[in-house]
Amino acid sequence: MSVLTTNEAVEAVSNILQEAGASGVKIDDAADFANLKPGKYGEIVDLATIPHRTEGAEITAYYPETVFVPEILPTIRQRVSDLEKFGLDATPGTVTTQAVDDESWATAWQKYYHPVRVTRYLTVTPSWEDYAPVQSGENVIRLDPGMAFGTGTHPTTRLSMTALEMVVRGGESMYDVGTGSGVLSIAAKLMGVDKITAFDLDEVAVRSAKTNLDLNPVAKDVVAKPNNLLNGIHQPVDLVVANILAEIILPLVPQAWENLTPGGYFLTSGIIADKLTSVVEAQEKQGFIIDNILQMKDWRGVIAHKPTEDE
Hints:
This protein has about 300 residues and is α/β, with parallel strands linked by helices. It is about 30% helix and about 25% strand.
């Protein structure tokens, strides 16, 4: 099943397909290719050899024979159409289906996925490539996109990683809310965060995160489990990280406040530009101090902290 959509709706559409029972998702996003600039992060691959779209995005999901696709197709079309209600432009939002054999799917998406230097210190690479760091201080995150909840190269994920690099000093405790692929937990461990618990509402995402955590020995002690945001969690930590839609960040704000130590950081991303004001206002109303707002294309990330008694 394939959905033609926009860059801003990629993660939301991917989640819709996964929640409907997809075994894996391939994302072909023109914006991802646009971020690969020759020489910017070193010549990892020959950019001219990478097949890519020139505009928009196509998300392709694989469903096993046990799923009766005609039955779920109307629901998926409706959910993609309903994204407009959440302020996401998913046009054209066309959904098509095609029968493929297992072998074709197993290799189809691999040609789209290559090592990418996503920040100064972090490179994301597929699990099957034998990639070695090319610069001092470069850390490598290995992901299995066969369980794709994003490859770690989307602007919202880049903003989250950059925010982590700006605030992490080592030894912190952290909640990763809406972990998806687990990439932010892995990145945080590489930066020196000590104790991490990763949550996701979707059981498929939790399994995906566990698969990727196992691929990265540094993250072997990260705990990944299902949970709705921070509902029922009452143990303060130093960091709360959430790369999710702005509408979902809003109910998380009071939960993050309760679960942060004084001086602790609340890092949020997944915020489309016109939703930034509502997110910032909700955080400031709660009592958070906004330290920085990060920007990449149409996306925004917010670095905020819970004030100490001296503040």
